[in-house]
Write a structure and sequence with these properties.
heterotrimer; A alpha+beta (974); B alpha/beta (417); C mainly beta (87); A: 974 residues; alpha+beta; Ubiquitin-like (UB roll); FAD/NAD(P)-binding domain; Elongation Factor Tu (Ef-tu), domain 3; 6-stranded mixed β-sheet; 50 strands; 21% helix; B: 417 residues; 8-stranded mixed β-sheet; globular; GcvT/YgfZ/DmdA (chain A); oxidoreductase (chain A); Sarcosine oxidase subunit alpha family protein (chain A); FAD/NAD-bd_sf (chain A)
Chain lengths: 974, 417, 87
């Protein structure tokens, strides 16, 4: 029911919305919750377990009941208390069928005696197969709150960084006062508040500050702060987590309140705020009271009733009763009465409470039952030993206030119990650099909060070396007296955790079953594990547990609050990654010409490389691949190898350095020559391989595999800076600076000589030579190296010439019957030659395993040499690299198949090895495989059985040398 | 007290007033045959199997906090047997078999749900590696099915098959893989051990290990000295500190691993799905929350909490793989402390001190190992011989290089496994 | 988490690569024996508290840095270039 002349809503702008298909109207400035209450909608949801009818409990992000799906945004579990109303908003209740008012699963409520704490651990075990088939599907279907619509997220989300001197979290009286103090002093301030309207409780109360209402003072403070260049106001921004070295996570709800956001406006933005200092002014949250049948729609916190009245101009009932254990609750009755709303009764548990007003007052009384199926109708009050019935459709309850300590617990800080206010307050210095001010540390009066905000800000500014002064306005000092009231004895169930349906009885049962640790109780009953993470219920449940186990509250302890303070969407935390944004995309200079040739581009780490280059008439990748292999073996092929890591190494210590990182020797390499090198990790296993060219006495260029380029660069820097800092050597990655192409095949030199300014021959450029060349007038580098086993070169030019050179090379090659080749052909070519890749050097193989133990120089130390000599790494029974050829009727080999003796059963204990690489060799007209076989080098000529259970293939193979083709290497030198 | 549907109904009809304590809270005795340091999943399972399989019941489990308060209560609840290296294969296979009989054995519903695990792959090379893995699983007697892209699409149509950064080539499907209710595993073993006479002693921190002449004699605790003939250290996350009490230095570096759960949602993810291009794995709890995790924060830490870079990286992986989860909201994040070893595989072994044993180094795979680890550690402590399924989990394997089990192939850098 | 690179100043943790304990600076002699090498490559003090470890400013200047910090509180006490610490 709307109340005349109250609230900060804009009655000039009515907004239409729907809830469960029915049309309603609210105003600009309403939340969905306030608009529903204004329309006298009390039933808004169903509880999780018993499907009990539920109404709005709070007016903030801690709301456990009023969770809805915003259907026009396909967004489940939205708190109606936070969702700002916009034109055309469409909301739907959750967790009910067929309708909210008639929910079939409310039968669970009748079954409640059998669904007590932890019942599911004790049953659903028979018969055994029924868990996955029957029980679990039933439980899953009944559980859950809202539903995802299972389509890809269509909305824009963003992430951003911000930096400041002082981050102020919360813009209530303490936060505003702190921001004013810091802002006026010139500090760089960020003031973040989860609400759309800054001011905190000031907007929900009828306090006076100086000559102004609290609401007006807050508005004036916000105006002043808005005008300051050094202050950034972030409304609708929840600081969600405190992390190390002054880093805070924060979620800004950028467009949730806008009916039709502009296309480039994100729905949400996740901020990482780095603050030199922070002040937590997050206020406090009011506690419900666990009295019998306290969960009916219409029962809400007293502060929520005042919020709806004072901020939104809504009376959440026609006849409102108030029930509390502290003075603060009384303000509710005064505000309601002053607004002309009927106060049905004020019930105070304290016998000595002083309440003045024109309404019935029961002191020393308690609420022991309620009635009303889908909404509160009557309250049963026990007063002076008698029970009396109070007619009310709304009950405002206040069990006292809990400081919002959550962020101070994010680094394992434990809050401290303060008996005077019956609440936990933050431990000192729980988060380095974070101070706490105002109600968040148990100061509950407006005057106290204003003063504390200024005081803490002055301390913080002083720490930062910023001179400041405080100018604090006058405000009332409201008393806060409270006496314990946790759970009221009575017949019915009394709820603690409303959403998860945890009652006082459940906590008692948990204790009886010896789940007496607060963590055990939580996990056993699910208390505090709902979407409010116990904000409404943890302290009450703790008090019940303390009582039943005969311990004091501080001794019973607390569970830990962890980030986020309130839930954050995965889309916001993962903003930017959807689709291709997850990782950078790296393109070679030949990318465009490759695509123009219709080459399928496949991922190679972050790079894209051509799989093959299809020609007209080719139906399958195999046809293209076979042609490309033949082309390289008989004519000439061009392949972009720029993705291999290239590291430029210079300095007088370069040779000595390379001798230390490679197993073999590079100091003896002549200028103008290239050598293949093998690199180990310090634990003795192979890290990477590649060729390194010596371009000058003090100048080498190393190539790494595509996959290990980053790792090797890091490794070189480590070895230099950490182990050999005295060596005068420097490295730089030049992978992206040079485009490099393999030119491979019998006609390779012919292709090159058509482009080189100074042609080469076998004498001037023998196998493993390297040098500076001019390619079509451009300075470049030429290396005579081969990964195909053919007469081959790699030619490098500055990357800006890469695309041109690739086109020129392809054109020359095509004129000679050759052309470009892709990864598939490259893999077949290298398999035919037994060259290893990371399929073989997969991190578990040694130089010994791949038959390269002779590359480990005996004359010098190198990284990994000592550990490679461990007994287990040189054992003859280790799996060693072998070649495999089909030798029976089945001709297929499969990478990943395991090897067995021909007669052995294909089980683990008989496994003798496995296949790592397979390719169909058009050169040898059969499948070839590389693999590892126990003691394999001594078994060439033997037969083994390859088994792939997954595809059901069994192939008899001949074990052979891994070099299948041209073992003498004559073609390389031709 | 035996649990059953009938018992639940009977108690329900009588006001749930008859439930008995799940375990006792005994005072520590002066001496035990065996002391287990650590009342987490592995420690409780060890105590249970000592009593059940070996009849050793004069056993105390000493827990500095509350039972099941460590990693067993803060993981992503995955249960699987999809390892491929000898040593790991047989062990995790055994563990999965124990899982499959656990609930009836313990008379406790741990909600072990064999909903199937799909490991996605995104390149030919990854496929080959998964083929090797799948074959190793079948060689071991477990189950594995290779799915192509269409096969994956049929099972999990909500993935982004068209635009994701690393296209989905297929998946290795492990039908017997799944999840379980993590706390219930700890409680079930605790209850079973207690019923067999084991003393579960909470709030009892071990402050020293008494060793005389190379033989263990007992422990010092915050509740006094307790003598024992044998002592087992099972304290994931604190292994280094407790081992140091016996003068040992372990091949372990402690790291924080974060995990996440969203608000409850109606069923949308029916399997366990694991991304192949970066650590991201997800399932949906019976309560409806999406439970997921990723990689370590990568720096040594005992803080049991993490930082934003990995939080965001995990969410980014989720958004590129399955953007339908974007509007699910993360309700809670938490961190556990992982014993990271140089090869990513665990240690169950004797130590140089006679009578002192250690079970540690579970990296972030400890949850699914709980039954078999307890089984094997109990066997080792009771008989002095390693159990067949755990004989390669030697403490000295890094020194000798024998049977190093590096499933990731990343080498002796503790945080890379 | 923020780390101060001695060259670049205070930077976000995501610019850095973490390797492990700074024991990696003390490489034993090749003939130091299996125990010394096992200590170096595998065994760790792994303290719950103050420790020194090695970070690489990979997304920055490429410096390897010895970071003295607390593994329980994540407080960073000091940072130093590894090449200075290693000399």
């Amino acid at each position: 029911m709307r109340v005349k002349d109250k609230g900060l809503i804009n009655r000039a702008v009515p907004l239409r919305f729907t809830f469960d298909g029915r049309h309603y109207e609210g105003f600009q400035g309403d939340t969905l919750a306030s608009a529903l209450l204004a329309n006298d909608v009390r039933l808004v949801g169903r509880s999780f377990k018993y499907h009990r009818p539920r109404g709005i409990l709070t007016a903030g992000s801690e709301e456990p009941n009023a969770l809805m799906t915003i259907t026009d945004r396909a967004e489940p579990n939205v708190r109606a208390t936070v969702q700002e109303l916009y034109q055309g908003l469409s909301a739907k209740s959750q967790n009910n069928w067929p309708s909210l008012a008639r929910d079939a699963l409310s039968v669970n409520d009748l079954m409640a005696p059998f669904l007590s704490a932890g019942f599911y651990y004790k049953t659903f075990m028979w018969p055994r197969a029924f868990w996955e088939r029957v029980y679990e599907p039933l439980i899953r279907r009944a559980a859950g709150l809202g539903a995802l619509d299972k389509t890809h997220n269509p909305d824009l989300y963003e992430k951003a960084y911000a930096f400041c001197d002082v981050l102020i979290i919360g813009a209530g009286p303490a936060g505003l006062m702190a921001a004013l103090t810091a802002g006026r002093a010139g500090a760089r301030v960020i003031l973040a508040d989860e609400d759309s309207l800054m001011g905190g409780r000031l907007n929900s109360e009828t306090y006076q500050i100086g000559d102004h209402t609290g609401q007006d003072w807050a508005a004036a403070a916000v105006s002043e702060l808005t005008a300051m260049d050094n202050v950034r106001l972030m409304p609708r921004t929840t600081v969600t987590g405190a992390y190390d070295q002054g880093t805070y996570g924060a979620l800004e709800r950028v467009a949730h309140h806008i009916a039709k956001p502009a296309d480039d406006l994100p729905l949400e933005c996740f901020w990482r705020i780095v603050a030199k200092r922070a002040i937590l002014c997050a206020g406090s949250l009011e506690r419900p009271i666990a009295f019998p049948m306290n969960d009916r729609p219409g029962i809400m916190t007293a502060s929520a009733v005042r919020s709806y009245l004072n901020r939104y101009g809504v009376a959440p009932g026609k006849s409102i009763a108030i029930y509390g254990n502290n003075d603060n609750a009384h303000q509710t009755a005064h505000d309601l009465a002053a607004a002309g709303v009927k106060v049905a009764a004020v019930i105070d548990s304290r016998a000595d409470a002083q309440v003045q007003g024109d309404f019935p007052v029961y002191t020393g009384a308690e609420v022991i039952n309620t009635t009303g199926r889908l909404g509160l109708e009557e309250i049963l009050v026990r007063h002076n030993g008698e029970n009396l019935m109070v007619n009310a459709d709304c009950l405002a309850m206040s069990g006292g206030w809990n400081p919002t300590v959550h962020l101070t617990c994010h680094m394992n800080g434990r809050p401290v119990w303060r008996e005077g206010i019956l609440a936990f307050v933050p431990a000192d210095d729980a988060i380095p650099g974070l101070s706490v001010a105002g109600a968040a540390r148990g100061i509950f009066s407006t005057r106290g909060c204003l003063q504390d905000g200024a005081k803490v800000a002055l301390q913080v500014l002083d720490d930062l070396g910023i001179k400041a002064r405080a100018d604090v306005p006058e405000a009332e000092e409201t008393p806060y007296q409270i006496s314990p009231l946790w759970a009221v004895q009575g017949k019915g169930r009394a709820w603690l955790d409303f959403q998860n349906d945890v009652t006082v009885k459940d906590v008692k049962q948990a204790a009886a079953e010896n789940f007496r640790s607060v963590e055990h109780m939580k996990r056993y009953t699910t208390q505090g594990m709902a979407t409010d993470q116990g904000k409404n219920s943890n302290v009450g449940a703790l008090a019940v547990l303390a009582d039943v186990t005969g311990r004091a509250i501080p001794e019973t302890g607390t569970t830990t609050f962890r980030p986020p303070f309130s839930p954050v969407s995965i889309a916001a935390l993962g903003a930017g990654a959807q689709g291709k944004g997850f990782a950078p995309e790296r393109f070679t200079t030949s990318h465009l010409p490759s695509i123009q040739r219709a080459a399928p581009m496949i991922e190679a780490g972050l790079w894209y490389r051509p799989s093959y280059f299809p020609m007209p008439g080719e139906q399958t990748w195999r046809e293209s691949c076979d042609r490309e292999v033949n082309m390289v073996r008989t004519k000439v092929g061009i392949c972009d190898v720029s993705t291999l890591g290239k590291i430029d190494i210079q300095g007088p210590g370069a040779a000595e350095f390379l001798d230390f990182v490679y197993t073999n020797t590079f100091s003896t390499l002549k200028v103008g020559r290239v050598r293949y090198g093998l690199m180990l990790r310090e634990d003795g296993y192979v890290m990477d391989d590649g060729t390194t060219a010596r371009l000058g006495d003090h100048h080498y260029v190393m190539t790494t595999t595509t996959a290990a380029a980053g790792q090797v660069m890091r490794h070189l820097e480590f070895v230099h800076q950490c182990l050999k800092p005295k060596l005068n050597v420097r490295f730089i990655s030049v992978t992206e600076q040079w485009a490099q192409f393999a030119v491979a095949g019998p006609r390779a030199r012919d292709v090159l000589n058509a482009l080189l300014d100074d042609p080469i021959d076998n004498d001037s450029f023998p196998f493993m030579a390297c040098g500076q060349v001019k390619v079509a007038g451009t300075p470049g580098r030429l290396f005579r190296i081969s990964f195909s086993g053919e007469h081959a070169y790699e030619v490098a030019v500055p990357a800006r010439y890469g695309e041109s050179l690739f086109r020129l090379l392809c054109a020359q090659a095509e004129a000679m019957g050759g052309g470009p080749y892709g990864m598939e052909a490259l893999n077949v070519l290298r398999t035919e030659k037994g060259f290893v890749t990371h399929s073989e050097i997969h991190g578990r193989t040694t130089a010994f395993d791949i038959g390269a133990e002779r590359m480990v120089s005996a004359k010098k130390d190198c990284i990994g040499k000592t550990m490679a000599a461990r007994p287990g790494l040189i054992d003859d029974h280790r799996e060693q690299l072998v070649g495999l050829k089909p030798a029976g009727a089945v001709k297929q080999l499969i990478a990943g198949g395991h090897l067995f003796a021909p007669g052995a059963e294909a089980v683990r204990v008989n496994s003798q090895g496995y296949v790592t690489s397979v390719g169909y060799s058009p050169t040898l007209d059969c499948y070839l495989g590389l693999g590892f076989l126990k003691n394999g080098r001594a078994r060439h000529g033997e037969r083994v059985k390859m088994v792939d259970h997954l595809k059901g293939v069994e192939t008899l193979c001949e074990v052979c040398d891994p070099v299948f083709f041209d073992p003498e290497g004559g073609r390389l030198r031709g | 007290m035996r649990y059953s549907a009938l018992r639940v109904i009977k108690e329900g009809l009588t006001g749930n007033r008859g439930w008995q304590p799940v375990w006792r809270d005994p005072e520590p005795k002066a001496e035990y045959d065996i002391i287990i340091i650590g009342g987490g999943g592995h420690g409780l399972a060890t105590a249970y199997y000592l009593a059940k399989e070996h009849g050793v019941t004069n056993v105390a489990v000493l827990e500095k906090g509350y039972l099941g308060g460590g990693n067993v209560g803060r993981n992503t609840t995955l249960v699987r047997a999809n390892y491929f290296l000898p040593g790991n294969s047989e062990f995790y296979s055994h563990s999965l078999k124990l899982w499959e009989g656990m609930e009836h054995d313990l008379n406790y519903n741990a909600m072990h749900s064999q909903r199937g695990l799909i490991n996605l792959f995104h390149s030919d090379a990854q496929r080959d590696a998964f083929v090797r893995r799948g074959n190793a699983m079948i060689n071991q007697g477990d189950d594995a099915i290779l799915l192509d892209r269409d096969g994956v699409r049929k099972m999990v149509p909500y993935l982004d098959f068209d635009n994701t950064r690393f296209p989905i080539y297929g998946g290795l499907y492990h039908p017997r893989g799944g999840t379980a209710r993590h706390d219930a595993v700890a409680w079930g073993y605790a209850r079973g051990a207690d019923q067999r006479g084991v003393d579960l002693i909470q709030q009892c921190e071990v402050t020293g290990i008494d060793i005389e002449g190379g033989v263990v004699k007992g422990v010092q605790t915050t509740r006094g000295a307790i003598r024992a003939k044998k002592v087992g250290i099972v304290v994931a996350g604190r292994s280094g500190q407790v081992a140091a009490m016996a003068g040992m230095r372990l091949p372990i570096e402690s790291h924080v691993l974060q995990a996440f759960v969203t608000e409850g949602l109606k069923p949308c993810i029916d399997h366990v799905v694991s991304f192949g291009m970066g650590h991201f794995y997800i399932s949906q709890s019976d309560k409806g929350g999406l439970v997921f995790g990723g990689d370590l924060d990568f720096y040594a830490s005992y803080a049991a909490r993490g930082n934003l870079p990995m939080v965001e990286h995990v969410m980014e992986a989720g958004m590129t793989l399955m953007p339908m989860i974007g509007k699910a909201r993360v309700l809670r994040s938490w961190g556990g402390i992982m014993d990271m070893t140089p090869d990513g595989s665990p240690i169950i072994d004797k130590t140089d001190t006679e009578g002192l044993f250690i079970d540690c180094g579970w990296c972030y795979g400890g949850f699914k190992a709980v039954p078999a680890s307890g089984f094997a550690f109990a066997h080792l402590m009771a008989t002095g011989r390693p159990h067949d399924t755990a004989e390669k989990f030697r403490l000295d394997r890094f020194r000798t290089g024998v049977s190093i089990m590096d499933e990731e192939g990343t080498g002796a850098q503790h945080n890379l496994h | 988490m923020r780390i101060t690179c001695p060259i670049c100043g205070e930077r976000d943790r995501r610019e850095f690569y973490y390797q492990g304990a700074a024991v990696a600076l003390d490489r034993p002699a090749p003939d130091a024996g299996p125990q010394a090498w096992d200590d170096y490559v595998h065994l760790r003090d792994n303290p719950a508290g103050r420790t020194c470890d090695l970070w690489f400013h990979e997304m920055g200047c490429g410096a390897w840095i010895v970071v003295e910090r607390d593994t329980v509180t994540h407080e960073v006490y000091s940072t130093e270039l590894a090449e200075k610490a290693a000399r």
